[in-house]
Amino acid sequence: MGARDTVAAYFGFDEHDTDLRTELLAGLTTFLTMSYIVVVNPSILGAAISVPGRTDAQTIQMIAVVTLVSAAVATLVMGLYANRPFGQAPGLGLNAFFAFTVVLGLGVPWQTALAAVVVEGVLFLVLTAVGAREFVINLIPEPVKFAVGTGIGLFLAIIGLEAMRVVAGDASTFVQFNPVFASDPVAVLAVLGLFFTLVLYVRGTKGAIIIGIITTALAGYVASLLGFSAFPADQAPEGTTLLSASLVSSSGLQYSAAGYDITPLVGAFVQGFQNVDALSFALIVFTFFFVDFFDTAGTLTGVGQVAGFLDDDGNLPDIDKPLMADAVGTTIGGILGTSTVTTYVESSTGVEEGGRTGLVAVVVGVLFLVSLLFVPLASAIPQYASHIALVMVAVLMLQNVAEVDWNDLTHAVPAGLTILVMPFTYSIAYGIAAGIISYPIVKTARGQVRDVSAGQWVLALAFVCYFFVRTSGILAGQL
């Protein structure tokens, strides 16, 4: 048996109706759409982590190295152990909570925040090992499970359109079409790239998303050489908020030997256990736990739906394995020195390219490791180009809404809230929470209280408690 046949047998190509070329292409696609985190995560955590004797640039590089290593390890576990095409890396939102709420906002040492991440990861490991995490996820009501894919699609669309500078913030309406679109080269180029990608996809061109991303990025470099420059965000009309952008990408990371020495971050969580207030520490772990738990649940369910992995009840078979990979990633990430590692919704881009096995994740993990040798691909691909994939996938994921029984209000209400709340709160977890809380309420209102299990009532109550803790100021009051 040759190497190709061995790989095919190990990952089950025949069982998943795929082949080596498709899996490799899907892995590259997922990596390109995830790779922005290699630049974004250091910039966010760098605002909160200060290492004595290291410059800000060296600290940012250290975090970038840790980001790459933790993402690679977690994703390789996902591919080789769980055999699922899901990529993992430090999660957006969770890193912002780590930096701006816990460390900068509440004054908690960054080492203590890392300790909370490690405790969360160990807790996930235990719950997954005993099957409790899978049990909780299976408590999610069916309409919520079927709505997750569409909600994630809208969530991706918001992220993508914002990075492409198609939409902008507005003080009155919160969001609007970029009022200076025609004079903003980034926005124009991004939209042209999107339509180019759509044309390729509709025509059935294999690798359409990759071709679209690379072509758009190259066009940006050419435009820059011709003298075009990005419309400065600070020149936008009054009241308008635009993300800073450039036709060419520059991560600002200057690699040095000191930057590669990550020993000040590795194991720093141990110091974080010193002089810890038990209640405040528990509240931080509680918040990390809930957001990561249900972000992961939503991502696995949503991407699993796109891939056709879900069974007739809307459950992901053998979900304990990808959950274990996620738990391992979180634990290792905290030990190495980064915020919570989670499964990425961008994995859906590789799934849309036909990826169905763990080889997709292996490719992503290897590319993260290769990126340690040179400037990460994320710094070569402008964000407005890579995020074309998010809008593409968002459009395709809308078809999942057809699975919901809209004629049954006890399904329509939870599903509708799940779909609407995700993009408008910028959180997958909040969308799932809205659906879970509303499900027993509408079932009871229709006289169908027997359809609601005791576990679903407990889950709904737990989310109510979570929202109270997260938004009442109790967390700030304890620190």
UniProtKB/TrEMBL annotation:
Primary location: membrane
Membrane topology (UniProt): Multi-pass membrane protein
Keyword Transmembrane: yes
Membrane-spanning parts: 24-48, 60-82, 89-107, 113-132, 144-168, 180-202, 209-232, 252-270, 282-303, 323-345, 357-378, 414-437, 457-477
Keyword list, A-Z: Cell membrane, Membrane, Transmembrane, Transmembrane helix, Transport
Location of this chain's protein in the cell: Cell membrane
Record GO cellular component, one term: plasma membrane
Pfam families: Xan_ur_permease (PF00860)
InterPro entries attached to this UniProt entry: Azg-like, Azg-like_bact_archaea, NCS2
GO molecular function: purine nucleobase transmembrane transporter activity
Keyword Transmembrane helix in record: yes
Family as reported in the entry's similarity comment: Belongs to the nucleobase:cation symporter-2 (NCS2) (TC 2.A.40) family. Azg-like subfamily.
PANTHER family: XANTHINE/URACIL PERMEASE C887.17-RELATED, XANTHINE_URACIL PERMEASE C887.17-RELATED
Protein name: Xanthine/uracil/vitamin C permease
Organism annotation: Halococcus hamelinensis 100A6
